[in-house]
Amino acid sequence: MPSPPEYTKPFFWDVDFHALDTEADQYYIVERLLEHSDDKSFFWMLNHYDSRLLLKIIKNSRSLSRKTGFFWKSYFGLKEGELKCLQKPSHRAGSKSWND
Fold first, then answer.
1. Burial of 78 per CB tally in 10 Å (0-12, 13-18, 19+)
2. Residues with Cβ within 8 Å of residue 48, at least 6 apart in sequence
3. Is the pLDDT of residue 85 over 90?
4. Fewest beta carbons within 10 Å, which of 40, 45, 71, 90?
5. Nearest residue to 59 via CA among 37, 30, 100
6. Three-state DSSP string of 5-73
7. In whole numbers, what is the pLDDT of the chain averaged over residues?
8. What are phi and psi of 39, to 5 degrees?
9. pLDDT tens digits, residue range 35-81?
10. What is each CA distance from 1 to 19, 25, 43, in whole angstroms?
């Protein structure tokens, strides 16, 4: 499968852009464009990928920022508890871990 459009390249600064595959790497591509994109890249993503895939990623990604999570929560009319990026981490801040 092809790489994403060339105009999305700035959002994939940390990988070999031309090695990206729009199908095999769809989770990574969508997750990145949900968090970092411009209008053109954003609308390409919305038109290229099925809304069920977008919802699956939005609900399950822990990499999305809270700001992004709240945007998509409102966009799709979701409940806060449905998005993993909006849930509190299981590790409590300030608590010691087993190897401290």
1. middle
2. 22
3. yes
4. 90
5. 30
6. CHHHHHHHCCCCHHHCCCCCCHHHHHHHHHHCCCHHHHHHHHHHCCHHHHHHHHHHCCCCCHHHHHHHH
7. 90
8. -60, -45
9. 999 999 999 999 999 999 999 999 999 999 999 999 999 999 999 89
10. 10, 10, 20
Tell me whether residue 49 is exposed, middle or buried, using C-beta atoms within 10 angstroms of its C-beta: 0 to 12, 13 to 18, 19 or more: middle
pLDDT > 90? residue 1: no
Arithmetic mean of pLDDT, 73-92: 87
Residue type, 25: D
Does residue 2 or residue 49 have the better pLDDT?
Answer: 49
CA 50 vs CA 44, 56, 85, 91: distances in Å: 11, 10, 21, 33
Tokens of 71: 């945007």
